[in-house]
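A student in our group prepared the protein record below, which I am reviewing. This is what I was given:
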Amino acid sequence: MTIRRVLITGMSGTGKSAAVRELAARGHQAHDLDTPEWSEWIAADPADALTPAAGKDWVWQEERVRALLSRPGEGLLFVSGCAENMERFYPLIDTVILLSAPLATIMERLAARSLDGYGHTAEERRKVTDLIATIEPLLRESADHEIDARQPITATVDAILRLA
């Protein structure tokens, strides 16, 4: 048996990080790539409207992520995140699962985040709204499956495991 690599993606507030935590709690190899361990801020064109912050973009650290996805093993390896450069890793991914939720659900989740969590401020939530309109359709095109993530995280993870 070889390792099967599953990317869980979606916009901010859809439950990617919560899904990875639940998968890890169930004993699976699972990594949140949207953390400083795996991602970093880079300078971006201030006119680029598709970045999470003006003049800055949050991207995966390519060497680290490539090493993670390339290592041999068995079973399932789950990674989650959403970054402008993630498409470069698609050849190393077996299945892409998009988590989605209605805008109202996402806004409630973002507003409930800690003060240092992305999407907590009104300006960040406005930016997320804009990004959902432009980025989510692109994610949907590249996904193998889509899960409505309004449900409790345990049900979302059960659905992820069925698809993986």
In short: Residues 122-142 form the longest helix (21 residues). The beta strands are 3-10, 29-32, 39-43, 56-60, 75-80, 95-100, 145-148.
